[in-house]
Amino acid sequence: MFLSIQFCFGEKVGLVLSGGGAKGIAHIGVIKALEENNIPIDYITGTSIGAVIGSLYAMGYSPEEMEELIQSDAFNRWYTGKLEAGYQFYYKQAEPNPALAHVELVTLDSMVVARTAANSLVNPTQMNLAFVDIYSAGTAACDNDFDSLFVPFRAVASDVYNKKSIVLGKGDLGDAVRASMSFPLVFKPIKIDSLLAFDGGIYDNFPYDVMRDEFNPDFVIGCNVSGNEPIPADYDMLGQLRSMIMQKSNYDLPEEAGIKIELKLDHIALLDFHKYDEIYDLAYTTTIGMMDSIKGRITARRDTLQLQDKRAEFKGLMPPARFNEINVYGTRNKDQNEYIKRGIRMDQENVFDYEQLKRGYFYLLSDDIIKEVIPKTEFNKSDSTYTLNLDVTLNDNPTVSVGGALSTSYTSQLYASLSYKQLGLQSVKYLLEGQIGKVYNNAQLTTQIELPIKVPVSFQFQFAYNNINYFRSNYIFKGDLNPALNKESEFFVKFKTSRPFRNSHKMVLSVGAVHHKDYYTQDNNIDLGSFKYDATRRNVFGASLKFTGNTFNSLQYPTSGHSELLLAQIYTESELFMPQNRISDELEAVPQSWLQFSGVIDGYNNLSSDVVLGHYLSVYYSTRNLSSNYMASIMQAGRFEPTVNSKLMFDPAFRSNAYVSAGVKPIYIINNVLHLRSEMYAFLPIYPIMNDNGKAYIGDPFTQMQLMGEVSLVAQYGKINCNVFYNFCSSDNHSSIFGVTIGLLMFNERFFD
Fold first, then answer.
1. How far apart are CA 101 and CA 655, in angstroms?
2. Residue with more model confidence, 266 or 692
3. CB within 8 Å of 244: residues ≥ 6 apart
4. Under a CB-based contact definition with an 8 Å cutoff, are residues 321 and 137 in contact?
5. What is the mean pLDDT of the chain?
6. What is the pLDDT of residue 528?
7. Higher pLDDT, 440 or 89
8. Which of 208, 310, 314, 638 has the fewest CB within 10 Å, making it most exposed?
9. CA distances from residue 411 to 477, 655, 700 in whole angstroms, order as listed
10. How many angstroms separate the CA atoms of 391 and 410, rounded?
């Protein structure tokens, strides 16, 4: 009876939660200790991570439920920006390229200016949707009034334009929390009442004043895990940025007003959420150690069963996620609105659930024509459904991209592109791109039209030029390189049509033609001052059907995911041999037609938290006849290029018209940035191509096996790679390669790929 009276009429207790990034995990430990000892929490104010934890508790989350959320993979994707693997639509994704930086060309005041394409370090895609999932029902249950939550709540954000704090107590709960935690450059800010709202810790990182002014409780318990910024080191750019942005906050809590739980967590970084247990345990034990002091000053108690009943009662008011009407903002016309709505609903015409929203949301954002979709909800009491409001940002400005790689070997490359996209009832993309380097040069124009019908289909036209130089020297700093003794050049045109197969695969049918030339020398002993290339010209027409899929977590050095490729091709060609070093007539071969089949399975499996084992299997078979000489036959044979640094290596021992290969890739994960990887492959030609004084012939089947390997220390942050590598093989034709590469070493499609 006493507890019941205290529940209704005892003194009111407020809980103040500071900002502090991952240090804010401590707030859960404090709440757990208070609940176990029946200490009531009648009001909550929070800043940044304090607003996240405070809002969850205010919606009825128990400490155990908060712990489960913070330690989940879903929460990890909030602060890392990594996309959920099962919702990446491979069919919609653009072909990978080595671009590292993007600049949009926009018109402002009748002038064309450049604007960076990214405005936050963390990709907001996951967070935008997660806040709908977590906060929509809570907002509906309190009817947009935070006083009507399970525990009345206030979030604190910052208005940097007017240089003041914003106290948020009404509206969309998710928006309030999102604004409170949006630290500049790390997380993208959102608009509150047409003003950009940033992390509340900029002006008020310990909102005791908000608790006093908004709720005026009888007693305040404060949990502070932060402090004013120390003087940053001269090499600490992030620390310097924080010092410039963060204003001095008042972390005082008057002794007569309450008690403050102060936790020293200076060794915990902003995003160290993986240190959950350490932070939680310190906070819990510290609070338990202060419990006698807390109980001595608070007479009210909150009965556990009553607390559970009240929590369950509030959760019962939270309507399930059922969406009906969709409103689209930020687009320019009705056709674009229809494209967005169709993408969200897919094949669902009426009321749809959160899972359908999630699929449609990621489906739209898999296409680079849509930069961002911010979903918000409004609850309709009349039919207990939500109206979905989508704030869409299109990527329809001309965009200049640059990238490539800088290497101590001969493979340094510069990449540049200009792209433009249009969105209506269908999406249209134009891409002009090219690469320049000592080894590889490329220019390519691609246009693509996608029809978002029930089973989507896209049509693509591609016109490309490739030129590849194969050098015998491995080091660009070794002096002047000798001329490339083998070269390829090609002009080709392709028409493609693609359709999706589930989320992670697609089928591509293509028809095309190529004018291809191979340049080579058939003599090992040549006079570099006077030698000329022999050449073989090929005009080829053909078609291919490709089934492919990819869920790798990195473009170049993945450590998780899988990739599959099945490719069937049919071609017909005319061939002309044009000798230069030997006195003989040009030789035009009899036109031939042939079939090609290839398949690749590549993937990674976790053996432990820090050990990954990759596997690789490939097969290749072609009915193509041998050419008029050995080098011409070898240069058009199937290439085995499993590692990054083998793709521009010319070695006849790793070429054949029919082969099988297998490999293993043990990887040791050092931390989130560094990993040490080794790759070891065996290549077995089914029909090896042999050299008999310049003539090609087929050797004994299943002989001439070769080995290839590569060891790399890789540092990855986003798309940027830095790797120290050593590439080696058993062949006598090519020496080992040691080098350092920074950037992305990737090459555009060749005709026979």
1. 36
2. 692
3. none
4. yes
5. 88
6. 62
7. 440
8. 310
9. 12, 21, 35
10. 47
Phi, psi of 440 (to 5 degrees): -130, 135
**Contact predicate 116/106, CB 8 Å:** no
Interval 621-633 mean pLDDT: 92
3-state SS string for 185-234: CCCCCEEECCEEEEEHHHCCCCCHHHHHHHCCCCEEEEEECCCCCCCCCC
Q: What is the pLDDT of residue 657?
A: 96
- Which one, of 661, 534, 131, lies nearest residue 357 by Cα? 131
Between 653 and 245, the more confident residue is 653
Residue 556 DSSP one-character state: S
Is the Cβ–Cβ distance between 158 and 206 less than 8 Å?
no
Classify 110 in phi/psi space as left (phi over 0), alpha (psi -120 to 50) or beta. Answer: left
Query: In terms of Cα–Cα distance, which of 375, 339, 334, 346 is closest to 128?
Result: 375
pLDDT in tens, 463-495: 999 999 987 654 433 444 566 778 999 999 999
What pLDDT sits at residue 618? 97
- At residue 752, φ and ψ (nearest 5 deg) are -85, 5
Strands 219-224 and 13-17: parallel
pLDDT value at residue 698: 94
pLDDT at 435: 97
How far apart, in whole angstroms, are the C-alpha atoms of residue 753 and residue 748?
A: 10
Given the structure tokens 């206030």, which residue do they identify? 154
**Max Cα distance, the chain (Å):** 112
User: For residues 134 and 173, is the Cβ–Cβ distance under 8 A?
Assistant: no
Alpha-carbon gap, residue 520 to 484, rounded angstroms: 9
Q: Which amino acid is at 446?
A: T
Joined together, the tokens standing for residue 404 give: 């490539």
Query: End-to-end alpha-carbon separation of the chain, Å?
Result: 79
Is 201:87 a contact under the CB 8 Å cutoff? no
* Amino acid occupying residue 414: L
**Strand 322-329 to 111-116 pairing:** unpaired
Strands 322-329 and 352-353: antiparallel
> Residue 268 to residues 76, 226, 735: CA-CA distances in angstroms?
16, 10, 47
